[in-house]
Specification:
Layout (H helix, E strand, L loop, with lengths): L10 E2 L5 E2 L30 H31 L8 H28 L7 H35 L8 H19 L9 E3 L6 E3 L6 H46 L9 H38 L7 H12 L1 H11 L2 H10 L29
Antiparallel strand pairs: 1-2, 3-4
Helix pairs in contact: 1-2, 1-8, 2-3, 2-8, 3-4, 3-5, 5-6, 6-7
Amino acid sequence: MVQAAGSDGIYMDASFNLYYPKGYNQLYDLPEDLKSVVSEHWGQFPPQHPLVSHIFGILFFVLWLVNFFGNGLVIFIFLKTKSLRTPTNMFVVNLALSDACMMFCMGPPVTINAFVQRYWMYGAFACQLYACIGAICGTASLLTMVVIGYDRYNVIVKGFSGVKITPGKAFIMLAAIWGYSIVVSAMPFFGWGGYMTEGGLMTCGYDYLSQDWNKKSYMWFAFVFNFIVPLIFNAFFYTKIVKAVVMHEAALKAQAKKMNVDSLRSNTDDNESAEVRIAKVAITNVMLWICIWTPYAFVNMIAVFGNQAIVTPMVSQIPAFCAKTASCLNPVVYAISHPKYREALSREVPCLGIREERKAGSNGTDNGGEESVQTKA
């Protein structure tokens, strides 16, 4: 049984196979005002199956729900719990805020679009604005993760000799993060770089398909200063953290051996798990960054300076979607790894079933969730 063809000649049969007239491609019925933000590159591919856009619409909706719950919970707990309202913890709140803003602005429009129209239905300017908001929030999140890494490096590696983050310094850092993100991401509106629809034609991002040097130079700048440089800093901070933890543990074992005891710790299992947790969180932070953001960054750069033929709609769309999953995973890694956050969460939201008891001897100070580890030559 075959379903009746639409006025555009495209139809699906009973087995959901898509049929379309010979010569049709993804750009066959685009409105004229949208073509300014749609690359001709996508015209070499056939019309996309409607089920693909529906799947992405559902995924964006699920991502939006998880994002809203996870980041909302982080913001609620950190702001409600007095002991957590410290300057350094405001970086975690800022990360949750930027991630929440990203999906709040990007999730619902795509979900609605996916079930109403096969291409971006809000017009060219809305496409550019959508992409700009995504760039602002994404850049702010990446830079905030660098600042969090720096703060934890200060606490764990430097200890008491580290730079103390005061409310004033924290405010200046956050203002610099948002100021830089807004200025750099707004450049396409002032003639440098550009934004366009991505492979599925329902989301928008950087214009990485144009061949003029104006667009290419902007992509180079974004790749180096919004991805590579922050990644290097983050990798440096967390490498130092892992090294300090390993050296600290080795020093304790050596001292225990000299004293002819098994361990200098009063509760070996718990304290060893704390040491291991610090290292695991540090490694997870870097690996999460690499696994989530690298595919999207390299697809962009392949299209700019490589073989554009391999950049199909799915090659473009899937990494772009995966990059947005960072907005859901960030609060899990940065907040759940914070013992005092878990304590507050178990107290304020008991329905989640989280059990985190306050450890005896806690002095009420807040060092970002980890103990200070300082190594001396």
